[in-house]
Amino acid sequence: MMTGFTLSDDTASAADDPGPAKSPSELSLTDVFHENCIEIIRPATGKSSAISLLIQILAREQRIDRIHAEKLVRDLIERERHTSSAIGRGLAFPHLRTRDVTHFAGAIGVAPDGIHFGSLDGEPTKLVFLTLSPWDDREQHQQLLSRLVSLMKDKAVNMRLNHQMQPRDIYAYLTDLDDQS
Fold first, then answer.
1. Residue 19 gets which letter from DSSP?
2. For the CA atoms of 148, 104, 25, 31, what is the dihedral angle to 10 degrees?
3. 64 close to 55: Cβ distance less than 8 angstroms
4. Do 8 and 59 meet the contact criterion of CB atoms below 8 Å apart?
5. pLDDT tens, 40-49?
6. Global confidence as pTM
7. Tens of pLDDT along 61-88?
8. Which of 85, 89, 110, 139 measures 20 to 30 Å from 127, CA to CA?
9. What is the DSSP letter of 84?
């Protein structure tokens, strides 16, 4: 398995390299969701557009290789066609294990007015946690998703995140959650 990733111009700096693989207990939320990968989503945005926007952010921030962006969008949308990742209570967790990434990467879409994401409870989705995981890291992928779902099902965490709809505030709260674990 390769380490790091190649940028579309075939250059990479030390800042682009995620470093050595971490054990499951060491993967923090802020390792996955970088500060510049949290974005406000406009109210009229649909599921496919939200996924595309979040993938574009990951490419812009060099968290994924741009040449894989379109394929990742297609793969995530195809996965959503089979079953929605919107679990209700304003939350969606589109995710994908893929050979197109070599490290965990995520983006958060914040929709204060909610967007239609096909949630199980029919309610608008306000927070979209998109995660991409390396194909060979099935256990860490499952642990990350379990941790996210558990945290977001906690009413206090969910309420706080829903009231902190600015990206910088959400990132600060993720940092606090990391510090607590």
1. -
2. -80
3. yes
4. no
5. 999 888 999 9
6. 0.82
7. 999 999 999 999 999 999 999 999 999 8
8. 139
9. -
In whole angstroms, give the CA distance from residue 43 to residue 125: 10
Report how far residue 143's alpha carbon sits from residue 26's, in angstroms, rounded to the nearest whole number: 11
Task: Please name which of 69, 120, 71 lies closest in space to residue 93, comparing C-alpha atoms.
Answer: 120
Q: Which residues contact 30 (CB under 8 A, 6 or more apart)?
A: 171, 174, 175, 178
CB-based contacts of 6-15 (< 8 A; 24+ apart in sequence)? 6/65, 7/62, 7/65, 7/66, 8/65, 8/66, 8/67
Question: Nearest CA to 178 among 39, 36, 31, 34?
Answer: 31
Are the beta carbons of 118 and 50 closer than 8 angstroms? no
The tokens describing 46, both together, are: 């649909």
**Spatial contact of 131 and 144, defined as CB atoms under 8 Å apart:** yes
Tokens coding 147: 């941790």
Three-state DSSP class for residue 113? strand
